[in-house]
Amino acid sequence: MADQGFTSLSRKLLNQVLSIYFILTLVVTAGQILAEYANTKNHVKQELITVQRTFSAGLTRAIWELNLQQAQAIAEGVMALPMVEGVTVRDETGKVMIQMGTHQNEEADTATARIEPELRELSGGYFGYSFPLAFEFSGRAMNLGDVTILSSRSVVLERIKIGIYFLIGNAIIKTTVLILLFVWAFNRLLTRPLTELTQQMVVLDVDEFADTRIKLSSNNNNELTIVETAFNQMLDKLGHYKQGLESAQRDLLGANRQLDEQNLQLEQEVARKTSSLSRSLMELDRQKMELERHQRELRAENEMRRRTEEELTLKRNELERSLRDLRDTQAQLVESEKMASLGTLVAGVAHEINTPVGVGVTAVTYLQERINELRKQFDDKKLTQSGLNSFLEDAEQSAQLLSTNLHRAGELIASFKQVAVDQTSEAVRDLDLRVYVDEIISSLQPKVKKTPHKVLNNVIPGLVMHCRAGALAQVLTNLIMNSLIHAFAEGQSGEMVISAHLDGNTVFMAYSDNGRGVSPEHLRRLFEPFFTTRRGQGGSGLGTHIVYNLVTQSLGGTISAESTEGKGLAYHITLPRSCD
């Protein structure tokens, strides 16, 4: 029995397979035709180049000798070639001397002859090869004009016409054979077995599962055989479920009889319990009145507690607002401290760059004066060998001076740029710790060189970290600046040492100076915000607090300090090798 909206699965599958094959065949055939067209077109272009090699010498000689008749004959010989559809010969001013066959209007800016061969795609399906006519006379190459040889798409299509017919015919034959093969295979392997399976399912007797089976006439062991086996197993299970259902019905009837007996006993028990429940209700009424009295007392106590809680809530809100204001103020002060540090760095680097730039300007000015003197001597024809040698020596010295000072300025700018960008960025990147410490020291050199102190880099070579470079730069910058401001007495020549080594995935870094150190009382408060021993002298008390926050929060490490008065101050920092 067929449904009105029935769609054949095998026919639908066959249509999809053949549709995909047809599209694939169409695409492949089109690709082969385009490849054949492109290959043939390249052959035609190479033939145009061969024509140029064959006729350019004779045509150049005829143009040089003003033998237009011979040039006309050569052009006619070129036109006689099958792939040539037009020849245009122009003189060195761009004026047309000979024009045969098809021609294309040149653009306005090609008013002069070409100096290099050129293959060009033109409108209307044409393409051409243009080459110059150069004649050598007395060792010099003279440009006499240019030649343009035109060919077109029709020439290429004519050459590949037979190949296109063959490709199309081959595709049609293969498609036809494949369609017939697929129709035969789908009908034999899918349509007929499915029809047989459906007919046996339609005549299935649902009352006799045990005696009903389906059997396919085909001996092929495939998916339909699996469906046949699974359907027969389902029939067996349905037979067992039917027997179990009949047994359950019999058990249910027996249970109903037992339930009727239990109901009778339950009614008798309910009557007995009702009497006991009445007495319990009277006791509950008494307890209810006692409970209501306690509830009134609790309401009065809750009201008192509520008023107390409201007062506490108001106080807590006031404290929270004060805490938020304090945190905002602290964040603004920290940011101001960072920007002030960066501003000081910018001013120092700018002053440091002025020196090599000023020397470079002086060298350029002096070199310009010497060039003017040399030009004047040359114009007056008073230039001597000794004068030229003197100029060359001065020029060499000036160039060396320029190179040295510009290189110095470039190094300063590179170091400042990397450190300044890092200090204003939270980006995580890979860095060679020793090289990066050198860049930080270099960026602080304008501050350090004004003092008798020096900064030493003892970081082991090749220690690579993956961390927030800006936070690390801010930590080391603050520590060095703190030492410059607080550590050393007037006239003392101090040292600041930065060292680091790797143990597993942990970087152990140490910073120390040999200054005056701090007292035990001050050491305990060293990382507290706004703690400073130079209050009123430019100290904000946020330097070491910023260092502590950057190490523990941004870099995910730990920091501690130790000091003995008169023997300097040391910081011990542990950082993960990777911040991820």
Task: Describe this structure in a few short sentences.
This protein is α+β, with helices and mostly antiparallel strands and 580 residues long. Among the domains are: 11-175, Beta-Lactamase (2-Layer Sandwich), CATH 3.30.450.20; 425-576, Heat Shock Protein 90 (2-Layer Sandwich), CATH 3.30.565.
Quick tags:
Heat Shock Protein 90, single chain, 580 residues, Beta-Lactamase, 5-stranded antiparallel sheet, alpha+beta, 10 helices
CATH topology type of the domain at 11-175 = Beta-Lactamase
- CATH architecture designation of the domain at 11-175: 2-Layer Sandwich
Q: Which of globular, elongated, flat, extended, rod-shaped describes the shape?
A: flat
**What is the CATH superfamily label of the domain at 11-175?**
PAS domain
Number of strands: 12
Fraction in beta strands: 15-25%
Could you give the distance between the termini? Answer: 68 Å
Overall CATH class of the domain at 11-175: Alpha Beta
Average pLDDT, rounded to a whole number, is: 78
Uncertain runs are: 107-113
Q: Helix/strand/pairing class, anyone?
A: alpha+beta
Largest sheet: 5 strands, antiparallel
Order of helices and strands: HHEEEEEHHHEHHEEHEEHHEE
Side-by-side strand order of the widest sheet: 2-1-5-4-3
Radius of gyration: 50 Å
Q: Total helix count?
A: 10
Helix amount, in percent?
Answer: 55-70%
